[in-house]
Design goal:
homodimer, 362 residues, mainly beta, Sulfite Oxidase, Chain A, domain 2, Immunoglobulin-like, five-stranded mixed sheet, globular
Chain lengths: 362, 362
């Protein structure tokens, strides 16, 4: 018996780490969806995306400053935050740059590399709208600038409507305290919105009339269109799905036979209502089964029984959400968006199953 | 960044280990509910209860034998098990001996010691009924004897009706492989039934006309009534609830003020429909809020806003499930069951809040 458990030494699936600069701890690590089950991502395998390393914060000294266009500026300790009524819900979190190379054709060979900046966990915290009753927002407060306590003081501007709708100050994840790489001891959680806006190691909320135009909302996390103009503040992660098994790098026993096709679907606009699977390169589509309960703003696990005939096949999934949005093909997506950007890429991802059972990206 | 994450060094909550015999790894470790959030128990803090240690099993060589009153006996490898259509769902798991001392008045000082043999995780596996189509049950098969690969070959007899209803062969927990202490690589999962029947390290299923009358269903996990007769095969865990915060051993700031009362409720008979909280020693009761979604056979998180007046108070919760069953008081329970046993104890647990803010068991 162990006071805090560990996995079996036979289990070796890991996050794939990609350091982006010479600055230690700056880059990403990706969730190994090809090896995972169900809808909950283990906290130890939740994706990471850091811009200035991971600060080691003592929760006993951590403070959240709330100031700017408020009647009563306030400093909250972690004990203060935990005194508020709490709230728990399962939400997906996806980096705005998930699959960023796929749009321009720099495709990745496996689902971890292509879709690994997505995870889904049960978060616990307090409604930010409730906390803000303590400070009193002035009518001219239209934006909230959320700043983290990482070395670079990463900051994003959030419209007041989202702040007052469903934003959370989160301190719990999958039942225990947030992990350091998820913002310990406190992060902002904006359900359905691009990961970067969910500011980690949250230590300051400033209410303003205008956005900050910070580096991460101007130089990064903007979308350069076909006409050379960039869209900024593209917050919502739109509907997408991907087959996680069989997926790139895996190998089926050759000769055909029964295989379950399974994967994940999610949308920042509410609930996934339908996932379809094609096993013939996109000519015919049939409904997959969604694992109940399908939760709003969480990943849905889909499953599709496939009797493989042993011949080469292209398998893929597409989803529909409650707004009626149907996940586009790659060609449909670039016809609208062009090739200049790559944030918020959400096209269908086909996998090639060869006669020898190997699975590769198309 | 780390390939497999760990929690902050400031987070130190742990399972409490109780070794029951001189045999290493035999005993229990309990989930620290006083420190946890939401409904998902982290796998690292899921309770343990072992009767003969934790075997270290290589999944590449593990086999499940299905035999007895079947048409086609079968040996399945883990690869075979994973080829079947999969299924994921969040279920609570509770040891039949959770709170075993409370019935006779041997009360525990905190919720971890009194209620820590309960946890709740998302399980993934395959429907056992589906697997059994491959072997073909004979009509005279009325019981399934499930045996684990631990040193003692722990075995339990399961009625065929439960086997064919919702029993699962489980290999995934909270998104990744089962932890060793939860039966890696394969366990039986019987939703809502006492933990001991959910046989870990599962390596044999024998179908029989009669139960095995194994040690753990005769000498243990039976309930000795007031008349000196023992009930056996009391499988279902009935409805219960407990306040996890504030709970024994915790301390509120003295002087009163707002505190959220929160806890867990669960029932082996389906859904929790209502949780009530009393802050006056059981005279008045008011409805708590249940965190949505409330899932069948999973824990429900309840919350109740409490403006403490700073005076001594006795706080407690009681739940109702979809069968209409209302959780009893300690006195009501022992009036029916007497004091000889202690398995399946599910009475209301009151906590005393003193004027100095300390919380103790009543």
């Amino acid at each position: 018996m162990r006071a805090y458990g560990e996995r079996s030494p036979y289990e070796t699936t890991e996050r794939v780490i990609r350091e982006l600069t010479a600055s230690p701890g700056t880059g990403s690590s990706r969730t190994p969806h090809q090896d995972l089950f169900g809808t909950i991502t283990p906290s130890a395998l939740h994706f990471e995306r850091h811009h200035s390393g991971v600060p080691g914060i003592d929760p006993a000294t951590h403070e959240l400053l709330i100031h700017g266009l408020v009647d009563r500026p306030l400093v909250l300790t972690m004990d203060d935050v935990r005194r508020f009524p709490s709230f728990s819900r399962t939400y997906f979190l996806e980096c705005g740059g998930n699959s960023i190379g796929e749009q321009s054709g720099n495709t990745q060979p496996d689902v971890q590399k292509s879709h690994g900046l997505l995870s889904c966990t049960e978060w616990t915290g307090v409604s930010l709208a409730l906390v803000l009753r303590e400070v009193g927002l002035k009518p001219e407060a239209k934006w909230m600038i959320a700043e983290g306590a990482d070395a670079g003081r990463m900051a994003r501007s959030i419209p007041i409507e989202k702040v007052l709708d469903d934003a959370l100050l989160v301190y719990g994840q999958n039942g225990e305290a947030l992990r350091p790489e998820q913002g310990y001891p406190l992060r902002l959680l904006l359900p359905g919105w691009e990961g970067n806006t969910n500011v980690k190691w949250l230590h300051r909320l400033q209410f303003t009339a205008e956005p900050a135009m910070s580096a991460k909302e101007t130089a990064y996390y903007t979308e350069l269109g076909k006409d050379g103009k960039a869209q900024i503040f593209t917050f919502v992660m739109e509907a997408r799905s991907v087959i996680t098994r069989p997926s790139g790098g895996q190998r089926l026993a050759p000769g055909g036979g029964f295989h379950e096709i399974t994967g994940l679907a999610w949308t920042g606009k509410g609930k996934i209502t339908r996932v379809e699977v094609s096993v013939d390169g996109g000519k015919a589509w049939a409904d997959a089964v969604l694992q109940e309960p399908v939760l709003s703003l969480a990943v849905a696990r889909f499953r599709f029984p496939w009797m493989w005939d042993g011949k080469p096949a292209v398998i893929q999934s597409r989803c529909t959400d409650e707004t009626g949005f149907l996940q586009p093909t790659h060609d449909e997506l670039i016809a609208v968006r062009g090739l200049n950007s790559g944030y918020h890429y959400n096209a269908i991802k086909p996998w090639q199953v060869s006669a020898d059972g190997s699975v590769t990206h198309v």
